[in-house]
Specification:
Shape: elongated
Mean pLDDT: 86
Radius of gyration: 19 Å
Number of helices: 9
Largest sheet: none
Distance between the termini: 27 Å
Low-confidence stretches: 10-17
Strand content: under 5%
């Protein structure tokens, strides 16, 4: 099966601190409720002001129940980020009419990634903030970035092997440059609220078109040479 070319940070999930998952269906439901509640509280109050009592209350359980599943705020925040990352890794590309058209796959992948990033923008902003003050989350962010860069490099190398893109560029260097471009753009638009030259919010279709064209031009896709 031909791999789709990842465009944003959708690589293999780096390890995050976690306990063994609950063994019972009730435990699984309770843990899931706590993670969902934590996301609500973190997005509403921010990481520093989020309180475990508020998370437990949002989940409809006692504070003591929280400690059955998580040791502290850092651990449940890692669990929330883990779920967000899974969403961004596998956002769903919809139906691509011609899977053999590399530009169609590239565009669909870009659209899926940017849509998922917008959906998780508040958490991406929080992760960036926490990474500045917590070495564990800084390593998590670095591992995450390196994982998707490596995955994109494998996608570029596959396209080179199939004589679709420029064979002369180094896949890892190209991936680092192009993946970083898309991730930085997504952060600026969806987290920082950067606007276009006319002071308007960026249109998603325009973003997808632009990053797809830049990737295609940079790698010299067919018709972009």
């Amino acid at each position: 099966m031909k791999p789709t070319l990842p465009v944003g940070d959708r690589g293999e999930q780096p390890a995050a601190p976690r306990r063994e998952p609950p063994a019972t269906s009730r435990g699984i439901r309770t843990r899931a409720a706590l993670v969902a509640a934590a996301r609500v509280v973190f997005e509403r109050d921010g990481y520093l002001d989020a309180r475990l009592t508020d998370i437990a209350r949002e989940a409809g359980c006692a504070t003591g129940t929280f400690y059955t599943y998580f040791s502290n705020k850092e651990e449940i925040f890692a669990a929330v980020l883990d779920e967000a990352q899974q969403d961004m890794m596998h956002p769903g590309m919809g139906r691509v009419r011609d899977a053999d058209d590399p530009c169609a796959v590239l565009e669909a992948s870009n659209r899926a990634y940017l849509t998922a990033y917008r959906r998780n923008a508040k958490l991406m902003g929080l992760m960036e903030q926490v990474a500045h003050v917590d070495p564990e989350f800084r390593r998590f962010r670095t591992d995450r970035a390196e994982a998707f860069i490596a995955r994109n490099a494998r996608g570029i190398a596959d396209l080179q092997a199939r004589s679709i893109v420029d064979p002369d560029v180094d896949p890892m260097t190209a991936s680092r440059a192009l993946s970083g471009m898309v991730s930085r753009l997504a952060y600026g638009v969806f987290v920082s609220g950067e606007v276009d030259g006319d002071g308007r919010e960026h249109d998603l279709d325009e973003l997808v078109f632009t990053v797809t064209r830049l990737w295609a031009n940079a790698l010299r896709f067919p018709g972009h040479r």
